């Protein structure tokens, strides 16, 4: 058998070599266009922030024209007594606490639905799946009325309490727990006399770690990008997250706050998201493929 007769394992069965090359080329082209499309706003922000103050909207918007990054950050810090950094701290606290607690609750609920049999389990999981399909924006007005009735307006709990509940996180945790935590390991722990919570804490959680990092990232990004609920329940500027604060600055139309400061703050506000994804990338990729091969 000659070398040309050996089938190419990377080519789909029955596909011609020319067809494979064309399909790969189209796929790579589509990925390249998508990458440019999604990175274009970030590149514009990076270029604009480095320009001297007041020239963010002039000249070539896609290339550098002078450098005054540190001066721009200093002006951002001086605006309104440095309230921007208070907004950033609020966002980090809301997202960090909300995502951490929400991930733990999702892991517990998902593990329960995957490994314990009880009456109504399938119905409960169906309700959770239905909740995934409901847009969160529909809950904003009922949550505002409820928090107003119990006196939680202008209270960080009004942002934290809804953020720790994630039907999508419970769904992912249930799928990952069913695939990554063998029933035999749980039974072995029970035979050794371990309590159910100890089995979950010492056995199930380490096995579900890649999935939990994925859930944490989804929760973190979702809470960070949430605008409507914090805008309705937090009227105190010093309690608002950075998303609400920047929108308030932008609404001033450059009168109370110069428009370039909104651009500078927008770039800085995405840095925590980039850091989170880059630092947890290894666990995140493993979690996305967990259970894909049985």
- The coarse silhouette is globular
Extended strand count:
0
Tally of domains: 2
Q: Return the string of H and E elements.
A: HHHHHHHHHHHHHH
The DSSP helix count reads 14
Terminal CA distance reads: 35 Å
Might you state the CATH topology name of the largest domain? Answer: MetI-like fold
Overall description:
The chain has 294 residues and is mainly α. The protein folds into 2 domains: 16-67, no CATH class; 75-289, MetI-like (MetI-like fold), CATH 1.10.3720. 70% of the residues lie in helices and 0% in strands. It has helices at 17-50, 69-78, 83-115, 121-133, 140-149, 157-163, 167-180, 183-191, 196-207, 209-225, 228-233, 242-251, 259-279, 281-289. α3 (83-115) packs across α12 (242-251), α8 runs antiparallel to α9 (196-207) and α12 runs antiparallel to α13. The longest helix has 34 residues, at 17-50. The mean pLDDT is 84.
